[in-house]
Specification:
By secondary structure, the protein is mostly helical. The chain has one domain: 23S rRNA-intervening sequence (de novo design (two linked rop proteins), Up-down Bundle). About 75% of the residues lie in helices and about 0% in strands. The protein contains 4 helices and no strands. The longest helix has about 30 residues. The chain starts with 12 loop residues before the first helix and ends with a helix. The relative contact order is 0.15.
C-alpha cells in the first residue's frame, strides 16, 4: 500500500482505543488454560478484532448508511467482548482487577464509538 494513501480511521479515537483493546486482549488470552485458547480465548480475540475491523470497514464504505451499519456491528462486537471478559473472570481465568481494567477499557472504547454512531446517524437523518 502506498504511503500517500491516508488511513482516515487512524485519526478516530474509537479506532485507536479499539486497536489498543484488541492488542491487550490478544496478549491476555494467551494466559488462558491451554484447553481454552481455542475456545473462549479464540472467541474473545475474534470479537475484539471484529470491533476494530468493522470500524475500518465502515470508513472504507462510500455511503453514510453503510458506514453507520458497520459501526453498529462494531458496537455489538464490543458488547460480546464485554461478556467474554465477564465469563473469563467467572471461570477464574482473570482476576477481579484485570476484569475491572478491561471493563474500563471497554467503556472507554464504547464512548467514542457511540458518539460516532450518534453523530453519523444525525448526519444521515438530515441528508
Amino acid at each position: 500500500m502506498s504511503q500517500d494513501i491516508p488511513l482516515h480511521h487512524h485519526k478516530l479515537v474509537a479506532w485507536q482505543r479499539a486497536d489498543d483493546l484488541f492488542i491487550r486482549i490478544h496478549l491476555l488470552s494467551r494466559t488462558f488454560p491451554s484447553y481454552e485458547r481455542y475456545e473462549l480465548g479464540s472467541q474473545v480475540r475474534r470479537a475484539a478484532y471484529s470491533v476494530v475491523a468493522n470500524i475500518v470497514e465502515g470508513f472504507g464504505r462510500r455511503t453514510l448508511r453503510d458506514r453507520v451499519h458497520f459501526l453498529h456491528i462494531a458496537a455489538a462486537s464490543l458488547a460480546e467482548v464485554g461478556y467474554c471478559i465477564h465469563a473469563s473472570q467467572r471461570l477464574g481465568y482473570l482476576t477481579a482487577q484485570a476484569t475491572a481494567e478491561l471493563e474500563t477499557e471497554i467503556r472507554k472504547t464504547a464512548a467514542p464509538l457511540s458518539g460516532l454512531i450518534d453523530s453519523l446517524g444525525q448526519s444521515q437523518r438530515s441528508s
